[in-house]
Amino acid sequence: MPSLNKTAPLRVAVIGNSHVGALRLGQKRLPERHADVEITYHSMPGGLARQLVLGSNLQLGLPEDVVLNDVQAAALKRLGSQAPLDLSTFDHVLFVGLSNTAMVIAQFLASHRIEGLYEAGPGSLVSREVAEAVLEALAFQVVPQADWVKWQGRSLTQYIGPRAAMTVDDPNADERRFGAWRTLAQSEVSPGPALDAFEDKVAATLAERGFFLMRQPRETLGSNSLTKPEYLNFFGREMPPGGDYVHMNAAYGASFLTQYFDGLKDGNQKGLT
What we know:
globular; alpha/beta; 10 strands; single chain; Rossmann fold; 8 helices
């Protein structure tokens, strides 16, 4: 990745869903060497964020035919994301959590054993070749929509989202949202190699289009290759009904942004592949 060193401030647009929250919190803890970075956040509920389109003049916004309900309209107003965002003025774009593939890959691993890669659990055994094909198909879901071909030649990074922070069996955890992650957390075999293999597929798929993948900082991962629980964020509340094991705190956001900006400025590809 080429170095983006320059005398002017580095302007970055962070576009995504609720996972942007950790980065907002973490920005306040950034090291002094990144004080020159200007970040503009453009976040909205996940269902809306996945509908964003990029116009020919690099205006990013929702399609004209999207009808907002009262809750969505209030969320956009609160987040300051009502108007389209002019991306022509930015050096770099970071997508945050605009794909549900993290959950899908967790569900795949929780229900299958992969020959020579992840042979834990009661699931059916699939060959490495079949697993590779599945991982590759999932990787394509992370690729930006076709309208982002207008952005090629510019700097864009995709961040799938954090791995869940589950280490114990919480009886209140919502099975639909977190059952697969709980299975992986309880596994005697780390799902890390399989999760890394998926991210390698995503990185290669993005690289073919001139884009990059931002990987979760290794320092935030525990021995089971899932997120350490100390990085969870409940916004000062108790664990909500059904649990929330995927929204992270300021410490996580600071670690993420530090790795991200180090990679951008130094061209060292640390975490950017």
